[in-house]
Amino acid sequence: MIIFSIDHKVIGKQYIGLALFSVVLGTLLSLIMRFHLVYPDAKVRLFQAMWPDGAPGGQMTPELYLSLMTMHGTIMVFFVLTTAPQSGFGNYFLPLQIGAHDMAFPVLNMLSFWTTALSLLTLLAAFFVEGGAPLSGWTAYPPLSGLGRITGPGEGLGQDLWILSIALFCVASLMAAINFIATIIELRAPGMGYFDMPLTCWGWFVTALISLFAFAVLLAGGILLLLDRTAGTSFFIPGGLIVNDQVQSRSGGSPILFQHLFWFFGHPEVYIAILPGMGLISTVLSVFSGKKVFGYKAMAIALVSIGGLGFVVWGHHMFISGMSPYSSIAFSVLTLAVGVPSAVKTFNWLATLWGGRLRFTAAMHYALGFVSLFITGGITGLVLGQPGLDVYFHDTYFVVAHFHLIMGVAAIFAIFAAFHYWFPLMYGRFLNERLGKVHFFLTFLGVYAVFVPLHFAGFVGNPRRYPDFKEYEFLKSVMPLHIGVTHAAYFLGAVQLIFLFNYFWSQRHGAIAPANPWNAATREWRND
Amino acid sequence: MAIAILIAALAGATLALFFQPRWWFPDAISAHAKAYDAHFVVTLWIVGCIFVFAQGLLAWVVFRYRDRGQAPEAHEGSGKLEVIWTSATAVLFIGLAFAGQGIWAGIHLEASNPHALHVEVLAKQFAWSYRYAGPDGIFGRVDIRQIDDSAGNAFGIDSKDPNGRDDITAALLRVPAGRPVELYLKSRDVIHNFFVRELRLKQDVVPGMTIPLRFTADKPGTYEVPCSELCGLGHHQMRSALVVMAPGEFDAWLQEAQQKVAAP
């Protein structure tokens, strides 16, 4: 039974395969969006072929752009950044690293994967229904997302499918979280204390705890939103609305309540994406420096602190939402406080390298790139975490640049590092080191070229989630910047083919790996 | 080796972009906006120093400890260092959070000015409308059933309420320079966002709520207002403008608008 396998390694690879499919799709969507942003009047036959309603005559409509944007964000956040680092590599390597034979609940594990797959299929189905995929963004704020077709195309069945998909994903993630937590608590090898676990296991452990608390709340929010749409409830819909010239017969709901529920999940989600990577990067830096991780205990505590503080900072996504301005002050202080354990991690990574003998393998390159991106993407949090300053940057490209660097690209660099580091265990062969390094250099360059300039569009005040910038005088000045970014994005997208080639080619033709080729000390490399 | 150079080069290029004048904030047109810019510069210096220090250290460590056959040193941690860098960043970051509160308080926590000009702002998919109270200083009652965009009654001003008869509605937000303005933001359908870059102000407009927003613009001019919360397929075209007028001009405009309302 290869398909419905209950083997953690097979399930890990299934998750990774699902994430790879998703990341290719999500990237293609982003490249189409970048094209449309700078050539909004272009008529493209391919668009017409793919979306006859969304691109009549090849001319992309605003609603099609917004639906691609919604799907890009949803696919990347849920099916790539949540799936690969935790469920993919975690499933494969957690049992090996703590000396367990498998996860605690293998059948549950299989069910989590197939629920995730069902969730992805449900999401993709939204592309093919009448009205297309939803246009309300991955945050799906009501009332835009809560009233059905009347607020826009894609807000009919497409939005229902989106919510259903997210609900399924929540269920899958809750099952996976319980499995990870039980495995770590119950199945550690005899004598292995919590502080004997590698930091990767700490990363997966804290991430599983975050998932358990965060996805439960998102699931509740999703169900309430679905009820508002289908059962006539008014959890998030206030009274007195006139949408599209039609008076709505709802009353008593609060649009801001949904934002609280969403971001109570949404902010911890950032850490779900990055904590497993932080654990892995610590390991990779240590192995290829020939040193132990500097400040192991501080690093473990920092992971736990980030996970804990991550639950009390969600309000920084809502500084401009209309919630009480006093609460913003508390959220601001807590938000900057969560920067402290993040900085502690960076210092410890630098101290791990300090005095070492650095071997520049491909995995080490990605790990060093991760640290650089983590710094670049992280420090703008010091700007956005202050409500007074956030007021200008909120919903501009400054935020787009910030979160892509830190939760998107940094997390993906950790995934690249994981592939290069663990490939010998997964396939008995190496990923090609030379191709890996070439891919690293081009990707690292491309990432800076795409995302650093976007901060400056934010300085101009360029709002995000605009299908084009034609309406505004002040946006004329940012067009050259966007054209440059779009070309850099093509470059960045194209060089990913190097990785894909390497990944598939090396499975069959890579150099045969000996046991423990990197001289690592963790358990998964032992032959027992 | 190559990666140390690349990290340094990319950090340098990132830094260099901050010295180009082309993509930057527009000119500030209020005391708040100027205070914003001043605090932003302070934050930028702190962030910039951390950035240069951290990226520089990373590049240097990578270069310094590249494999030249040396034996790795055997230190695994230092309680002293952990305490130092944890407390140093805590003081710096949390200090910054407190330092930034003044800007925030300036937007939302200051008392309403009794001489302020009151304007209601109504957002709907995908247009903005503004309402002035007229000579009586009282906004007329609204009645949802009387909303009629084609007849120019986006607010649904109740024809039976005498207070509403002198209300002025407009498609642009006109205000006099130097006078405090108090907006009341309302939405008829979904969430929108009122953003004036030159005022460094941005506020969601939430259906079911009336959210006040205060400012005093001191430089006449026309400033674009882009909707900044995703509101549907026309979001990117939901454009309006703030027109800051010399006080005399504003009075003349208001008088003319009042005459139009009085003699339909």
What is the overall number of helices of chain A?
15
**How would you sum up the global shape of chain B?**
elongated
Oligomer: heterodimer
The largest inter-chain interface, given as chain pair and residues per side, is:
A-B, 111 and 103 residues
Q: Please report which band the strand proportion of chain A falls in: under 5%, 5-15%, 15-25%, 25-35%, 35-45% or over 45%.
A: under 5%
Compute the CA-based radius of gyration of chain B: 26 Å
Order of helices and strands of chain A: HHHHHHEEHHHHHHHHH
* Main β-sheet, spatial strand arrangement of chain B: 3-2-1-5-8
CATH superfamily of the domain at 1-23 and 54-237 in chain A: Cytochrome c oxidase-like, subunit I domain
CATH fold-level name of the domain at 1-23 and 54-237 in chain A: Cytochrome C Oxidase, Chain A
Order of helices and strands of chain B: HHHHEEEEEEEEEEH
Number of domains of chain B: 2
Distance between the termini of chain A: 25 Å
DSSP helical segment count of chain B: 5
Describe the structure.
The complex is a heterodimer of chains A (528) and B (264). Chain A is mainly alpha-helical and 528 residues long. Chain A has a domain at 1-23 and 54-237: Cytochrome c oxidase-like, subunit I domain (Cytochrome C Oxidase, Chain A), CATH 1.20.210. In chain A, 66% of the residues lie in helices and 1% in strands. Chain A has 15 helices and 2 strands. In chain A, helix 5 packs antiparallel against helix 6, helix 8 (296-309) runs antiparallel to helix 9 (325-353) and helix 9 packs antiparallel against helix 10. Chain A is globular. The two termini of chain A are 25 Å apart. Chain B contains 5 helices and 10 strands; from the N terminus they run H-H-H-H-E-E-E-E-E-E-E-E-E-E-H. Chain B has a 5-stranded mixed sheet with strand order 3-2-1-5-8. In chain B, a hairpin with a 4-residue loop joins strand 6 (192-196) and strand 7 (201-205). The radius of gyration of chain B is 26 Å and the shape is elongated. Classes of the chains: A mainly alpha (528), B alpha+beta (264). Chains A and B meet through helix 3, strand 1, helix 8, helix 9 and helix 10 of A and helix 1, helix 2, helix 3, helix 4 and strand 7 of B.
